Amino acid sequence: MRFAGIAAMLFVVLTRNASAEEFVCTNQDVEVACSKGKCEKSDGFTPSSVSIDTKSGARSVCMYSMCLEGTADRLDVSKGFVVARSDQLKSNTGSGAIVINLENYAAAMVSRAFINPMICEKH
């Protein structure tokens, strides 16, 4: 009887983790900074990363020497796209959004003065 209870708990944990979809996106190739009505490629930038869990809404944005974490205020998942928007990540007073194309895992992150093309991996 005790074995059946442990097996049932293990089944719940394993199936919950199997259904989780986390995307981790980075901009290894280019960073685009925008201000005063124009956008320019940044020279000598540090790649940023964004992660989003489509089940829990957990979101993390790491740029330069800081990581901002929290939950997406709005999360839309469709056949073709994941769209996550956050207005108040931890230690952040700004807002940002990411759109992930589920066909090719290309993404665009918009945050304050940055608009970054990204490539994502599904975990």
Provide an overview of this structure:
This protein has 123 residues and is mainly beta. It has one domain (21-122). Helix content is 15%, strand content 50%. It has one helix and eleven strands, in the order αβββββββββββ. The chain has one helix spanning 2-19, and strands spanning 22-26, 32-35, 38-41, 49-53, 58-63, 66-71, 74-77, 81-86, 96-101, 106-111, 114-122. Strands 6-5-4-1-11-10-9-8-7 form a nine-stranded antiparallel beta sheet, with no helix packed on it. Strand 4 and strand 5 (58-63) form a beta hairpin. It is globular. It starts with a helix and ends with a strand. The model is unreliable at 1-19 (pLDDT under 50).
Structure, briefly:
The chain contains one helix and eleven strands.
Name the strands of the widest sheet in spatial order. 6-5-4-1-11-10-9-8-7
Contiguous low-pLDDT stretches (5 residues minimum) are 1-19
The number of domains is 1
The SS-based structural class is: mainly beta
Q: Please report the total strand number as a whole number.
A: 11
Proportion of beta-strand residues: over 45%
Q: What overall geometry do the principal axes of the alpha carbons give?
A: globular
- Helical stretch count? 1
Write down the secondary-structure element order: HEEEEEEEEEEE
Distance between the amino and carboxyl termini: 35 Å
> Describe the biggest sheet?
9 strands, antiparallel
